[in-house]
Amino acid sequence: MIRKSIKIKGIVQGVGFRPFVYRLAGELGLAGYVRNTSEGVELEIEGPPRKTVAFLKRLNREKPAASRIDRITVRNVPVRRVQLFIIKESKTARGFTRLSPDIALCPDCRREFYEPRDRRYLYPFINCTNCGPRYSIIENTPYDRLRTAMKKFIMCPECRREFADAGDRRFHAQPDCCSVCGPRFALYTIRGKKIMALDPINKAADLIQRGRIIAVKGIGGFHIACDARNAAAVARLRKFKHRPAKPFAVMTGLKDLHRIATVTAGELEIIAAPVAPVVLLRKKGRSLCSAVAPANPYLGVMLPYAPVHYRLLETVPFLIMTSANVKDEPLIRNDREIRNRLGSIVSHYLTHDRDIENRCDDSVGYVRPDRGFSVIRRARGYAPNPVGLPFSVKPTLAVGPLLKNTFTLAHNDEAYVSPHIGDLDDRMTLEFFREMTARYRRWFRIDPQIIAHDLHPDYLSTRIARSLPGRKVGVQHHCAHVASCMGENRIRGEVIGIAFDGTGYGLDGRIWGGEFFYGGYQGLRRVGHLEYLPLPGGEASIRKPYRIAVGYLCRLFGADAVPGLAPKKEIRAISKMIDAGYNLADTSSVGRLFDCVAGLLGIMPEITYEAEAAINLEYRARAGVSGYYPYEIDGSDELVVRIAGILKGILKDMSKKDTGVISAKFHNTVSCFALDICRRLRKIYDVKRICLSGGVFQNRLLSRLMIRDLTEAGFRVFTHRQLPDNDGCVSYGQTILANAKHGK
Ligand code: ZN
Ligand code: ZN
Ligand code: FE
């Protein structure tokens, strides 16, 4: 006989890990115990050596789908000569408890949900230790029912029996409930009048099918739902959301998925995973009305993840499910807000009496053929999982950037990157930010000593940072981008960092966004960038890409060289601004270069959502076009890419080639000058590793070209793995650099 002590870190709480261990030990006839600790799960097994080896093998192979083992330590301990295997009560946590994200309905629960003889037949809050709400219902830690939104529901005897039975799939499933004791759905008119219906979900589905737009309470917030085949409903929704063109996410069942999109095996694996994110897939067929994702080859699709979604899809097979909020505000989380804020768009709301403690958007991303899932918005299904750090840090709060904000709370080697918060220039979003930072500090018991923030003096996030106690450390936006990519890849030593981005405050006070860095965590030095060009009227010009084009052309070639991109008067006004140096903002941003080219080609006079012009430029690029436009590189200490040749080449092509060819050649050009710079830097610094970060890399064509070209040239290219390319990664990067400087 031997006895082993096993400690496991990872996502092992709230995911059915202890019942699984209990069953496994039972099958193998091993004695011992298992319990949750503040660090994860701790267990001891006692029995013949052969059986303990089998146990460890199967532990890893058969663990619950939603769990993740990050670290496992095994050591021998003295034999106790006990007979039984027991589940011990959790240790009182002095440290913090690992919390689980929300998990999509599991196959076992789905089967029971549709089994007429099951006592939870069609009960829309069915869940078990392998699935259901987690993050969204947590009030406080340690995670147990009395500290969740389930505390007001007193378990019926049958649920209590399951909850206490270590052999049951619902053993210690905190949100466990049934139609006798648990929450219920109800349907109301927007004025708050309850609709009497035996089956309110079915009634709501009927209304949607008849063209109504309805708010539906889900896991981390409400959705606004309508029939994705109903053009009139979609048009009304677009008007309300001030969203003329930005694609809406569609929810559909697995069996209908192929009717609206082509799905690769890799994409299927992601879309059907317990996270259940929105995945951007190639659009197909004519099942949906074109207004769902106009002028876009991709469609954001998710599968149902809460039981209520399955019920709605029975009647309406393709639902638009867009976050219920007013433009730029955080998610709506209760009925009162629905009535107050959505009165002009929604006719009814389908709600329930389980509170949403923590709002959480649907996560969004796409699958890169060679690199797996690339997340664009990291929220439901991921939060509050920590992201590992490349080195141990002091207790830190990084407040993140102003827009697309996430914050990071970190200590030791773990960074709790918050879910997507939003744009802090909105008052309600700011409140959301304050609430969530307070909760994260309480849950994870981290009292920050270091406060990391952006360098922009006027950003609200910077002002918040200044008001907090602790050592304030400013971190340049693009350095944070690069460090974030380095950190996720656990890189040690030096790299070339490429930050191709929209906007970020530079060390020289100008707007950066096309930067090359060399260095490590101790210091990233800018060694190259796109030449500075003027944005006439500052950042306001971003809405009108042709103004950027006019500005760039005026500076480079003078007003006479500008073709008829705009009324003569407007061109004259801009050229005057350029000549006088009045109301300009200089930028090296690659995002703006894309806007400029889109503006030059007249792709869209005015954009309606971020990066719309650049995105359209990408989608127009024709496949299989080689060739690129001439550019120049000069400078010594800092290499500078000169783009006059690029714009000249495009102007020349415009009379004889279509936009598809020009767009493709332009993409090639960007990859080409990036490679050129990297080759020169390799000669100087003898470095092969390259880290890519910044919103521009969400351009799939460009990132594919750059990864290919750089790899073929012998570089090792690193990209983000768990965090987005966009500003959602910045708070994590701030954490790293602030600690490299001041964490020792
Ligand atoms: Zn389940
Ligand atoms: Zn019950
Ligand atoms: Fe950025």
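^ zinc ion complex. The chain has a mean pLDDT of 94. The pocket of zinc ion (ligand 2) is lined by residues 155-156, 158-159, 177-178, 180-181 (CB under 6 Å).
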